[in-house]
Design brief:
The chain has about 240 residues and is α/β, with parallel strands linked by helices. About 40% of the residues lie in helices and about 25% in strands.
């Protein structure tokens, strides 16, 4: 979408795009690449320009926030947490296909051009998913070895609001992003879902089963509440 105009801000001009839509109010959206103005087709351009001038301080503040978040995302792709440990990420543009190699204590991403951060995150996410598919079933088998009921399957989940789930049929799903967390945190989520094999609720009996499988569950649950957002660096 071509820019409608450039809005002068303290940190430099910002492109503004205009979207015409039937709505009663004038909307403003500040992204990391542009500002979007959403207005009814009959609202004159002069009125929209006046709104931008009046809201320039608000726009400038949110633009700075978006730029900081963008810088943080770029920094995160230069390293990756793997089982709670920070692993450096190196890239080599050479290569006909994209592949990730774990060697010498670092992750080498091949076939991704310098500056293509989206492709880098995609490659790293795919690698983490493959590693999680190997790691998680082993944890489920180890922690669930003494249970009266075994899970029928263990799959990966890409949910953005849940770390795991367990169906009435015994299918356990674990969020692939958990592979970036410390092993103890992964074990807690596994124990949580294994406990659902016996108790499809969050009753006292359920939490007693969780404690039997993983005694420090309260500490792990709090870690996910305070630090879990960091596991979404790859999307």
């Amino acid at each position: 979408m071509p820019a409608w105009l450039e809005l002068p801000l303290p940190d430099g001009p910002v492109p503004v795009v205009l979207t015409r839509r039937r709505r009663q109010t004038i909307g403003l959206r500040v992204g990391s690449e542009r500002v979007e103005v959403i207005a009814h087709p009959q609202v004159p351009l002069s009125e929209l320009e006046a709104v931008l001038r009046r809201r320039s301080d608000w726009i400038a503040e949110h633009w700075r926030i978006q730029q900081q978040r963008k810088r943080e995302r770029l920094a995160e792709t230069h390293s990756l947490c793997l089982l709670g440990e920070v692993v450096p990420v190196r890239r080599r543009a050479e290569g006909r296909r994209v592949r990730v190699v774990h060697t010498d204590g670092a992750l080498e991403v091949q076939g991704v051009a310098e500056g293509d951060e989206a492709a880098l995150r995609t490659a790293l996410a795919a690698w983490v998913k493959r590693e999680a598919q190997l790691d998680f079933p082993r944890r489920v088998a180890r922690l669930g070895a003494g249970l009266l009921r075994s899970p029928s399957a263990c799959h990966l989940s890409a949910a953005r609001t849940r770390w795991g789930s367990c169906t009435a049929q015994g299918v356990i799903r674990l969020n692939w992003r958990l592979l970036q967390a410390p092993p103890a945190i992964i074990d807690y989520v596994v124990a949580h879902e294994l406990a659902h094999l016996m108790h499809m609720n969050h009753s006292a009996a359920f939490w007693a089963q969780v404690a039997a499988l993983y005694p420090d569950w309260r500490v792990a649950r709090q870690w996910l509440k305070t630090e879990g957002h960091r596991l979404f660096a790859l999307g």
